[in-house]
Amino acid sequence: MFRKMYDWVMRLAASRHAPRSLAVISFAESSFFPIPPDVMLGPMVLARPNKAFVYATICTVASVLGGLLGYAIGVFLEPVGMFILKLFGHPEGREEFQHWFDQWGLGVILIKGLTPIPYKLVTITAGFARFDLFTFMWASIVTRGARFFIVAAILKYAGPAMLKEFERRLNLYSVILLLILVGGIVAVKVFL
Question: N or C, which end of the chain is more exposed by having fewer CB within 10 Å?
Fold first, then answer.
């Protein structure tokens, strides 16, 4: 099962539609979509390491533009924003994030943008909080860019060796990654 899924993702990552798909996923993830762009970015960099930083740029630009949509949802479509927060397990998210923005402001964007915590939670609640749009934009560019360029650089330079090892023990690493993903989701629900 994992081998078929892995082969499919690697074929998609090497296809001519991959950059467009990466942009769409990056945009949507910053405002409403549950799957992070790393799912596409990683295999794309492994398939074409010479384009690693082009792909990181696509992720960054699309993610920041998607973040603007998330911000707009928070400002203009509060019921939609509340629905999205509830959907991701944060029914009281508005008050919680509002407190975070009041207390730490810019730090919320800079720290949360680098982590695997869904960025849409930050973008929508930044809109709820009416956080300064200019600061929101430059902080999003810095933090999202850092995240995607770090991932791209690691995979570009260490990826081929990592890929050989991963393919050799695909089932083991797939189970480990699945456990990490489930653990991360549980941790987010418990600690946020």
Answer: N
List the pLDDT tens digit at each of the 192 positions of the chain: 556 766 666 677 778 888 998 998 899 888 887 778 887 888 889 888 999 999 999 999 999 999 999 999 999 998 888 888 777 776 666 677 777 777 777 777 777 766 667 788 888 888 988 889 999 999 999 999 998 999 899 889 887 776 666 666 666 766 776 677 677 666 656 655
**DSSP state for residue 47 in the 8-state scheme:** H
Query: Using an 8 Å Cβ cutoff, are 101 and 129 in contact?
Result: yes
Distance of CA 179 to the CA centre of its chain: 18
Q: How far is CA 175 from the centre of its chain?
A: 21
Tokens linked to 118: 């869904």
* C-alpha–C-alpha distance, residues 113 and 124, integer Å: 13
